Amino acid sequence: ERQKHIRNFSIVAHIDHGKSTLADRILELTDTVSKREMQDQLLDTMDLERERGITIKLNAVALKYHAEDGETYIFHLIDTPGHVDFSYEVSRSLAACEGAILVVDAAQGVEAQTLANVYLAIDNDLAIIPVINKIDLPSAEPEKVRKEIEDEIGLDASDAVLASAKTGIGIEEILEQVVKNVPAPDGDLDKPLKALIFDSIYDDYRGVVLSVRVFEGTVKPGDRIKLMNGGTEYEVTEVGVNSPKPLARDILMAGDVGYITGSIKDIQDTQVGDTVTSADNPTAKPLEGYRKMNPMVYSGLYPTDNAKFVDLREALEKLQLNDASLTFEPESSQALGFGFRCGFLGLLHMDVVQERLEREFNLDLITTAPSVTYRVDLVDGSEKKVENPAEMPDAATIKAINEPFVKAQIMVPNEYVGAVMELCQRKRGIFDTMDYLDDIRVNIIYHIPLSEIIFDFFDKLKSNTRGYASLDYEIEDYRPSNLVKIDILLNSEKVDVLSFIAHVDFAEQRGRDITAKLKTIIPRQNFEIPIQAAIGSKIIARTNIKAYRKDVTSKIHTGDPDRRAKLLDKQKRGKKRMKSVGVVDIPQEAFMAVLQTG
Ligand code: GDP
Ligand code: MG
């Protein structure tokens, strides 16, 4: 029957090894999209993904494949991101599949995220089809990579497909292996509905659109469904598949990957990882959901216009539907008013969330410098978690401050080993091991405080190695460090959102660097503004922003209307990301300035 002709699979790989390009070729070869509609990285549907050339969200698409055996198969293909910040998306898509195509770059070989993602696939008991991609490159060494896959991952790679997603070599063979090696889904059609929500988006017209993998039973328009976690019930208005545009179907059955809509307006009710069942005939036990992800980096998000607080909350709720790893809680700042403290899986994730909020929800935001979660042991024996530097307790009540450390794995050509080690030492790193992977590449492992990683570590690493180093890290443990809170005062007023935590040994230098930096960022006014850095009541650095001379303003009174309009426009745009704190206007950059020091 029908199930026998379904194959559900993902593509996993290290970033840039060619997942999205391979997905393009598969869509082309199966005529899922016409030549006219075809564009590169078709499944990267967000503007942000296209601009940056990276995949952020998982994406599911249904396609038809006419196989060599004369049968027609329905493939559900899920493209996934490769960057470590988005591995949550990967683990969710894998739970909806029976197989995974593992793409390895023939020139780069097995890399950190190749391993991480393949382990996720193995954990989910998926059939794995190794593909060695980019064999068209002159530097390709497919046989060496085949051996790496066997030695480093422990997979049989004797049948690994040699492919080029660029030129189209090997694509057909990959699809044939999917038919032969990925098991067809099983699951009883007659049992009560049991479907896993692996993603969801909010659509202004259709309400919440649930992406589901049906494991048992069937679902069709008119059915009453129940979301098991919250117990809420809805009537299904539409079911269908993405091909890649939404395509309504009469029914979804066990084994299918598709979507369900049911004019679900209540965003809080729908959680990724939840099970959808029939309201009238519910299944006894929900599916195993997902491991909850703990945010690692926090920052404050504030609307530039205080009146937009409610809009920001709505936007965060909608975005969270589509990004289950985002967390947020209201917070308030003396300087910035009402906003949210948001938790992210990493810096790239933070960047992406801010951009999506601004683009998809039309908001202007001020983000504060990211910080990590500190665990503070207090003198009274209790422990306090501090996600916001401004909330660091009074020094007199603190026994010890513990900070998260990461195990950082840096791969680099041997000529840069010295530069990398020097940087790691400067960032309070603790050396672990160094291994030669071959004649050229060295793998260096350091234990480094996460807070140092989020302060410009990656940029420095890239610039010190002419872009050759790759960095991968995982959170390891909390370790006690000698840390202090540094406050920033503008015009003698403490600006709470500019407070940050630093190691004692670097505190004074950081204080001097940031006051100097702020001096260049904060616009002059018609009075002098002192900038000070302080630890407790002790001022550790100070400088002044000079008042501007009166005649500077007169330059704006230009006669040329064109130029005048341009100037006004420029002023307006400049204003957007600016916040008045007391009598001082602070631009967005100032809140991030601390990241560029140290
Ligand atoms: P992803 O990050 O794994 O999704 O990788 P992409 O599909 O975005 O590809 C990363 C880069 O590698 C892009 O510039 C592609 O054009 C290029 N690329 C992908 N496959 C091949 C291939 O088979 N040969 C060559 N030469 N380049 C490829
Ligand atoms: Mg991609």
Automatic annotation (TrEMBL):
EC number: 3.6.5.n1
Family matches, as CDD domains: EF4_II, EF4_III, LepA, lepA_C
Reactions catalysed: GTP + H2O = GDP + phosphate + H(+)
Tr-type G domain mapped to chain residues: 4-186
InterPro entries reported for this sequence: EF-4, EFG_III/V, EFG_V-like, EFTu-like_2, G_TR_CS, LepA_C_sf, LepA_CTD, LepA_IV
Entry's localization field: Cell membrane
Summary of the function given for this chain in its UniProt record: Required for accurate and efficient protein synthesis under certain stress conditions. May act as a fidelity factor of the translation reaction, by catalyzing a one-codon backward translocation of tRNAs on improperly translocated ribosomes. Back-translocation proceeds from a post-translocation (POST) complex to a pre-translocation (PRE) complex, thus giving elongation factor G a second chance to translocate the tRNAs correctly. Binds to ribosomes in a GTP-dependent manner.
Family: Belongs to the TRAFAC class translation factor GTPase superfamily. Classic translation factor GTPase family. LepA subfamily.
Name of the protein: Elongation factor 4
Organism from which the protein derives: Paucilactobacillus hokkaidonensis
Lineage: Bacteria, Bacillati, Bacillota, Bacilli, Lactobacillales
Gene: lepA
